[in-house]
Specification:
The chain has 191 residues and is α/β, with parallel strands linked by helices. The protein contains 6 helices and 9 strands; from the N terminus they run βαβαββββαβαβαβα. The protein has a single domain, classed as Methylesterase CheB, C-terminal domain (Rossmann fold, 3-Layer(aba) Sandwich), CATH 3.40.50.180.
Length: 191
């Protein structure tokens, strides 16, 4: 089934079309899901995103916008705030960065995935969803190189297939799945 064993953390990246995909995915997570979840969704940098409030209503887990040096708690969902990179600093803390945008994006999916891979290695599952850029390709490669697993949304189903296609071409995947299949697998997570 291409699961990290044990599943210690989940990272998710999405861009164009990502709000609807994340609504479905986060809504599928059971309240008993124990791994922390870190999410980058490309959002406009010049206004509050409102995404945690919007998606929190669909998710059985607490959904928060990440703060710098915020403690990591199991069974919580942390979103990158607008115009900040989100990094997993350690198993105990998050970090925010205003380093240069990566592929025109801040927050960057690559930055999140690479930092999480360095901390969680084999215990990490990365999920790359719909998007119109190539952000996430290097991150997926880093996760897989560290021994973690990567699921990529089936490009045919994605609202914007460019990001899944770019990651598949660059890094491959442990599974290419439709959104509904990902949700079913997450419900049966070993976390």
């Amino acid at each position: 089934m291409a699961w990290p064993s044990p599943l210690e953390a989940l990272v998710i990246g999405a861009s164009a079309g990502g709000v609807a995909a994340l609504q479905t995915m986060l809504g599928s997570l059971p309240g008993s899901f124990q791994a922390p979840v870190f999410v980058v969704l490309h959002v406009p940098k010049d206004r509050p995103s409102g995404i945690p409030e919007l998606l929190g209503g669909y998710c059985a887990l607490p959904v928060l916008e990440a703060d710098d040096k915020q403690p990591v708690r199991p069974g919580h969902v942390y979103f990158a705030p607008p115009d900040y990179h989100l990094l997993v600093e350690s198993r105990d803390a998050l970090a925010l960065s205003m380093d240069e945008p990566v592929l025109f994006s801040r927050p960057s999916i690559d930055v999140l995935f690479e930092s999480a891979a360095a901390v969680y290695d084999r215990g990490l599952l990365a999920i790359l969803l719909t998007g119109a850029s190539s952000d996430g390709s290097e991150g997926v490669a880093a996760v897989r190189a560290a021994g973690g697993k990567a699921w990529i949304q089936c490009p045919v189903e994605a609202a914007a297939p460019a990001m899944p296609n770019a990651a598949l071409a660059h890094a491959g995947a442990d599974a290419v799945l439709r959104l509904g299949e990902m949700c079913e697998r997450l419900k049966g997570s070993p976390a």
